[in-house]
Amino acid sequence: MSNNDFKTIIEGIGYNQFGKKVLATQIRFSTLEALFEVDPEVQRKLDPIRRVEIRQFILESLKNIDFYFSPFVFSARGAIKKTEHGWELQPGSKLYILDGQHRASALSSALSHLISQKETAEEAGNINEARTIQDYIEKLKEYPIAMQVYLDLSTQDEQQMFTDINTERKEAHIGLIMKYDHRDTYTELTRQVAKQLEHQFEIEQELSRLTYQNSAVTSLTIMRKCLLALFEGNLTVKKGNANFGSYTPDEVMAISLAFFESWLHLFPKQMANRKKYVTGLTGIQVALALTIYELNKKHSIPHQKAIMQLKQLKQYCTWQHDDPLFSHLYDSTSRKITNHSSTTSIQRTAVKFLAILNKERIECHDHQRSIL
Predict the structure, then answer these.
(1) In this structure, what are the phi and psi dihedrals at residue 331, rounded to the nearest 5 degrees?
(2) Alpha helices of 82-184 — where are they, by DSSP H?
């Protein structure tokens, strides 16, 4: 794509599809952002949950592997003409997106997220981390978007095409990616662990977010977050290869199973009842995993032994929303805990868990000394 005397020239190949003129092209995302709009008369309202799911997939894929999207579909509404210089987008005109709205929004959101992370790293003096994040930012800006641009559709044609596209196909969300992606170590481990647990409690295989009505205890997406916190203390996006320390693959599997199986003894029988208990919520499950990581890192307690210590929480916690242990999350209006899955909330919850376990360990040590 080039700018010729303020005219936008797009390189591509024109062809006919089902009697409609189409331009097949590819544009880097940073350029495309300025060229398209969403027409609310054609597009549906943006689903922020779906955008978060796709953004998470982008950020997780960005660190290790390339990711691929099917072509975005646009309507030019007669604003692109074939000229001697190439395909010309008339000055002041826009392309209107028919398919790819959530992916485009997720790419923009991922960029904003990375820019914020970079600023945080710079302010903390982590120059190397800031440089690494800048590389990711540039990679996203340069990400090539494959496009099909319909040149002369009517508004009715656009509406029909949008309906057809969304009836025939839906973009794979992060839950389905978790189910079928074989490129990520933690994703593969999650699937193997879930397979071993399938007869012990219900695990959501596709949805990444669980509603209060969902009967599953957890999901593949949440389990992966737990494992990442369990072994690496990571609550954000995974960078580089999996790091299981000195544990062998068999030990990693045993520790992973032990962590999730501990819920059967630690949580109430109705642990999937999110209206009554917090045990089925992402932030609580990940905070428990982070607690194990901290016990191992700061107190050199092996993972398996640390997992066994979790049972001590049971005598201090009812796991109900209004339990004092979750006062930092409790909303008196809704009578539920809220914002439990943010990084700060997870860390604060883990600190409360650790305070109880450390108190128990000190009391046990003092008791043993008194006996001696």
Answers:
(1) -110, 110
(2) 101-123, 127-141, 155-168, 174-180
Distance from C-alpha of 224 to C-alpha of 219, rounded to nearest angstrom: 9
> What's the predicted TM-score (pTM) here?
0.56
HSE value, Cβ hemisphere, 13 Å, CA-based, for 301? 19
Taking residue 138's Cβ as centre, other Cβ atoms within 10 Å add up to: 12
3-state secondary structure of 38: coil
Single-letter amino acid code for the residue at 247: Y
Phi and psi torsions of 301, nearest 5° = -90, 125
Q: How far is the CA of 171 from the CAs of 82, 99, 308, in angstroms?
A: 32, 10, 41
Alpha-carbon 37 to chain mean position: 25
CA gap 19, 152 in Å, rounded = 11
User: What does the pLDDT look like over 13-44, one tens digit per residue?
Assistant: 888 877 888 999 998 898 888 888 887 777 77
- DSSP-derived secondary structure letter, 269: T
Q: Which residues on adjacent β-strands are paired with residue 116? A: none
**Each residue of 248-269: pLDDT tens digit?**
999 999 999 999 999 999 999 9
Q: Is the dihedral of CA 338, 344, 348, 350 positive or negative?
A: positive
- Give residue-wise pLDDT tens across range 167-200: 544 444 455 455 545 557 888 899 999 999 989 9
Q: Which residues pair with 331 in a beta bridge?
A: 336
- Can you tell me the distance from the alpha carbon of 259 to that of 240, in angstroms, rounded to the nearest whole number? 24
- By three-state DSSP, how is residue 336 classified? strand
d(CA 140, CA 30): 8
Is residue 320 within 8 Å of residue 337, measured between CB atoms?
no
Q: Please report where in the chains the tokens 């389905």 appear, as a residue.
A: 176
Q: What is the DSSP string of 18-33?
A: TTEEEEEEEEEHHHHT
